[in-house]
Amino acid sequence: MITVIRSLLFNTAFYANIIIQMIVFTPIYFLMPRKKAWIVPKNWALSNLWLQKMIVGTDYEIEGLENIPEGAYICAPKHQSFWDVFAFLPRLDDPVMILKRELMWIPLFGWYVAKMRMIPIDRGTRAKALRSITLGAQKAIDEGRQILIYPEGTRRPPGAPPQYKYGITHIYAELGLPVIPIAHNAGLYWPRRKFRRYPGTIRCRVLPPIEPGLDKEVFFKRLIEVTEAACDELLIEAAKGPNPPPMPPTAIQRLKELGVEPTRTRQ
């Protein structure tokens, strides 16, 4: 019952925070130069993390920050939750996100996104989408920005078999930039398409850069291997911790494959 109450309070505060900050900071945001205006969405991200800690009791830790280089690179986080959409923003200098074109049509939100010159794509036509991404990404890296892309394209529950899209390989080959994989276990504490939020500590791991210039297949295989291996380690740490979160079926199955018996399961 406590988890339900805290989840209700947090979800209410989370969406209220979006609306209030958009209304209060809109004049400041649109009058500031584009790069300086990042202070508004980054402040929003930090305030969400604070609300989650204060209301739900969910903290987070990021290790491997020394692996983040300066200048342009491709940032490739695991995508498990809405949490990973905003949580890394304060750690990135001037990111450009690759997102669905339909998001640009949302009133006010779409205007916020447009100011930051994100890269909208039409996922219905693969060849056109890849050309659009490449052109937009090239302009971004000429400005020293970071390309933020989720290799699986959609949220996957913790422990689920990986479904990486080949599009990141095309971008990697075309741009000639290092790729920074990021593993985490946020989906255990902020599950996709679920109401409940769980207390604990979300653990993230910024992995060493994958250098540019590798064969496409070699790169693709390495990205999957290093990211999934780190996610497995973080899943096991959470399951063996003093107060593990309830595990979804995909995490239970993966833990069994790894020889670990979960102590809590999610209904």
UniProtKB/TrEMBL annotation:
Residues 73-187 form the Phospholipid/glycerol acyltransferase domain. InterPro entries: Plipid/glycerol_acylTrfase (IPR002123). Signal peptide: none annotated. GO terms for biological process: phosphatidic acid biosynthetic process. It comes from the Bacteria. SUPFAM superfamilies: Glycerol-3-phosphate (1)-acyltransferase (SSF69593). CDD domains: LPLAT_AGPAT-like. Residues 239-267 are annotated as: Disordered. The chain crosses the membrane at residues 12-32. GO terms for molecular function: 1-acylglycerol-3-phosphate O-acyltransferase activity. Pfam families: Acyltransferase. Pathway: Lipid metabolism. Keywords: Acyltransferase, Membrane, Transferase, Transmembrane, Transmembrane helix. This is Acyl-phosphate glycerol 3-phosphate acyltransferase.
